[in-house]
Amino acid sequence: MGCCGSSLLRKPIPEDKVHQRQSHSNGKNNHAIPPANGGDTGGVGSSSVPTFAEFSLADLKAATNNFSPDFIVSESGEKAPNVVYKGRLQNQNNRRWIAVKKFTKLAWPDPKQFVDEAWGVGQLRHKWLANLIGYCCDGDERLLVAEYMPNDTLTKHLFHWENQTIEWAMRLRVALYIAEALDYCSSEGRPLYHDLNAYRVLFDESGDPRLSCFGLMKNSSDGKSYSTNLAYTPPEYLRNGRVTPESVTFSFGTVLLDLISGKHIPPSHALDMIRGKNILLLMDSHLEGNFSKEEATVVFDLASRCLQYEPRERPNAKDLVETLDPLQNKPEVPSHVMLGIQKHKEAPPTPQHPLSPMGDACSRMDLTAIHQILIMTHYKDDEGTNELSFQEWTQQMRDMLEARKRGDVAFRDKDFKTAIKCYSQFIDVGTMVSPTVYARRSICHLLCDQPDAALRDAMQAQCVYPDWSTAFYMQSVALAKLDMQKDAADMLNEAAALEEKRQRGGRGPS
Q: Could you give the CA distance from residue 100 to residue 103 in angstroms, rounded to a whole number?
């Protein structure tokens, strides 16, 4: 078939561009509270981090699939248990990924106390914080909403790595950025951080380390603040149960030990080794000697000062920054490169038109939902595409229709390889042209991880029906799978516009 569609957005992506790209890549918002300092402290602008807001419980249920166990990213705390879920807001104007921390019903019995505490943390905005963007206080429910960090925790990268360990320069960067985050919080009157440990250090889409905002708020109204092993808990907390700025410094010292050694070492044991000048024995063997002994000595000394038994002998957050800043030696290398990970792509732009169920499923890349919608739609959009004479009802025609029927059965039963085979038999005969068959084979290709073939089928469906929104929707999903995010967003917007036009009485299939 020849090319079709004249406008820029409606024109299918040429196959040579598809192959070229492949070779390169082989809420509820009432009570909004402006962030402190206009929202741009530390390089985070108000455009990139939303203002602190109240979310409805319905919003957060929708974002987390009703708090599905499949969406849990962490569980912690025996004294004050809490669960953190990954979620995605469903608001058409804001489809950002979020982290939702869900407290037990008894953790914060007084709703006003919970809201006041959340409000205080929600004022903070810094580039090395995973910032708090909202809360929900509905009946017995107490939830916090923060920016979602997609690249795991320091614990995962330091202790459970699969491809490569964290190089020395990156460990120094982690230490500095977390120190800068703590220094900022202190300067804004929030110096207390509860249970600072390697789990609290998260990596964003660029691989930069961020300090979780959840640690800035107590796990419960009665102040149970530490859930880690007692060997890593500040000694004064064990004495009186209170967290002080000096307690935070002690915990930072344990994180420094983690970064230096690549393993959990009780502070008392580490201090004995440092005093005995056995520094090299403490160094992570996975570094294979690729570190500066002078820099390591400075970090060891800083960790030793942080872990002093007497709180008054420990440095403050500003001292931490001043000590670590001169050690940074690869400022030009992006964090994701040093971590050895792929940089996460930005989410596609928000669609310019309201999304139907099909549009929403495509924007979320929910292949299962798309498959179900195509089953429900059946062949209603094929009406009028073929006018066959009596003479054309040959045995070949009957065989072709039988192939399509077998394809439909396999499609319904999710036997996608068989469906591709049967639909291909139907298409190859060429007597009848069905955009629905092309769309169905397209989603089958996607479900079999064949986005290039899926894109070609979606383009052929468009050639049959130049204004068919489903053809554009399928192209948007295939393009997104091929990492062509801008083209995918354009196609999604075009599909939504065509669908909206159809619903207002325009001609053409829906």
A: 10
Q: Does an H or E element contain 476, and which?
A: helix 469-481
Q: Identify which of 371, 401, 382, 375 has the alpha carbon closest to the alpha carbon of residue 464.
A: 382
Active site residues: 195
Task: List Cα–Cα distances, 419 to 297, 368, 459, in angstroms.
Answer: 64, 15, 19
Please, what's the b/e burial string for 217-227 (b: 16 or more CB within 10 A of its CB; e: otherwise)? bbbbbeebbbb
3-state secondary structure of 54: strand
Give 295's DSSP letter.
H
- C-alpha gyration radius of the chain: 28
d(CA 284, CA 256): 12
Whole-number Å distance between alpha carbons of 47 and 40: 9
Segment 183-194 mean pLDDT? 95
Distance CA 84, CA 71 (A): 9
Note the pTM of the prediction, 2 decimals: 0.62
The answer to whether 62 touches 27, Cβ cutoff 8 Å, is no
CB 464 within 8 Å of CB 385: yes
- Expressed in angstroms, the distance from the first to the final Cα of the chain is 22
Within 8 A by CB and 6+ apart from 313, the residues are 305
Interhelix angle 267-275/245-261, nearest 10 degrees = 70
Could you read off the pLDDT of 400-426 as tens digits, one per residue?
A: 888 889 999 999 999 999 999 999 988
Strand boundaries in 36-174, DSSP class E: 53-54, 72-76, 82-88, 97-103, 129-130, 132-138, 141-147
The number of angstroms, rounded, from the C-alpha of 424 to the middle of its chain's C-alpha atoms is: 37
- Do the beta carbons of residue 446 and residue 454 sit within 8 Å? yes
Contacts of 398 (CB under 8 A, 6+ apart): none
Provide the pLDDT for residue 81: 59
